[in-house]
Structure to design on (164 residues):
């Protein structure tokens, strides 16, 4: 949907909302809550263009850590509960049930890696940086920390250049 611009030289203005009146997925949503942020993550599964607000980014990061702790923690508890003493007697060999949780965690990671990378790229766009800065993650030890600093930067109006 487009609107007439007050100045005819500017051309039509694009509506920042979708057909249901919700903010478009390629635009940042300041003040997004946890459910909305995770919903937008998976609805915009592989959208590398556009922008994402800091709130969206940090709620998804919290969600990812929480899922990892819950699935991993339950897996460890089940592994210890179903485990057997090690032959040397100095520990426990985890039971086979723990591997079900490891597989579940691996499937979740594999199913979420593309949306997580896309969210990083959109977050970098909102701070007016190139999405290619995501490749800083390839630098051992300090790369992810540097990328995290870039993702923590405030939104900048010039980031709109990355919108479709």
């Amino acid at each position: 949907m487009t609107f007439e611009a007050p100045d005819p030289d500017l051309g039509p203005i694009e509506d920042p909302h979708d057909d249901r009146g919700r903010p478009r997925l390629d635009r940042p949503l300041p003040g997004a809550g946890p459910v909305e942020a995770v919903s937008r993550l998976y609805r915009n599964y592989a959208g590398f263009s556009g922008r994402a607000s800091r709130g969206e980014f940090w709620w998804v990061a919290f969600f990812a850590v929480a899922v990892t702790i819950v699935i991993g923690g339950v897996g460890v508890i089940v592994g210890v509960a179903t485990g057997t003493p090690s032959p040397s007697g100095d520990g426990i060999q985890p039971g086979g049930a723990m591997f079900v949780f490891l597989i579940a965690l691996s499937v979740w990671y594999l199913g979420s890696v593309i949306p997580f990378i896309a969210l990083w790229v959109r977050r970098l766009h909102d701070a007016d940086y190139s999405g290619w800065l995501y490749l800083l993650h390839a630098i051992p030890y300090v790369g992810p920390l540097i990328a995290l600093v870039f993702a923590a930067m405030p939104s900048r109006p010039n980031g709109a250049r990355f919108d479709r």
Summary: Residues 97-126 form the longest helix (30 residues). Strands lie at 2-3, 13-14, 84-85, 92-93. The two ends are 14 Å apart (CA to CA). The mean pLDDT is 87.
